[in-house]
Specification:
Blueprint (H helix, E strand, L loop, with lengths): L5 H12 L11 H15 L2 H29 L3 E6 L3 H11 L3 E7 L4 H5 L34 H9 L19 E3 L5 H6 L2 H12 L3 E5 L2 H6 L3 H10 L8 E5 L8 H13 L21 H8 L4
Parallel strand pairs: 1-2, 2-3, 4-5
Helix pairs in contact: 2-3, 8-10
Length: 302
Amino acid sequence: MCHRSINYVADMLETKYGIPWIKINFIGAEATAKSLRKIAKYFGDQELFDRVETVIAEEMPTVESALKDVFPRTAGKTAMIFVGGSRAHHYQELFNELGMKTISAGYEFGHRDDYEGRHVIPTLKVDADSRNIEEIQVEADPELYKPRKTPEEIAALEKDGLEFKAYEGLNPDMESNTIVVDDLNQYEAEKLVELVQAIDNIFTVYEPEVIAVHTTCLSETIGDDLPQIFDKARKDKKVPEGKTVLGAPTPSYVGSHVTGFSNMVKAMAALATPSKKKNGKINVIPGWVEPSTWRKLRDLPL
């Protein structure tokens, strides 16, 4: 699932079913070993502790051999990371193992806690467009709620160094004189990418018949209004006569990739002009299918 959403989902699982959670990272050998030890510490099973140490001891020589081969080519290199979810934070552990220095990092759709750590969440104010985001209220399930650890057990584990639902964010990992790409407000993004101007540029340079625009998690969360943007483009004469611009909402937090695909297909189908004239043909739009399914559909007798 979307890594940006996973913290919220973990909170919901804890509230509804009593399942505590810890933050782990499997990107990089050292990070993976650390995460496996954290998991073993949570369960407190000596056999599991021993098995984890055995696996680490068995696998690390192979990792070290590969690192010995790669390190001369990566040591001293610099990196910039600009991705979604928490990966701009997590990949730095891998880069550190490779002797690389991250000089700039940021998130495509990060929240404040991704930068500053979970402790800032109580200070956050909800200001997203309520038309686009459905608020989910979760309560303890009367039948399935079962705390996996008592408060005393949680306290003992925390005293022993295991942090529950905690993360420090990106900022502490960034050294002085490095650059954090701040995605917390969208002023820069809006100035860099003006959709109306982009529509004009595409029609001018490439002369397509149709421009199809789909949204992402970020644009839906901000509340970008595609119909309003398209209307402005038409009023400003950015859409040539006889040409078409269409759009559909396709954020990853609504349904799945199939939902986004269906929304875009519906938006394109809505352009069709109904006609009573028959040509002996039909259009079959089955949704998200494999190529082999299409071959079967073409062979159906009409």
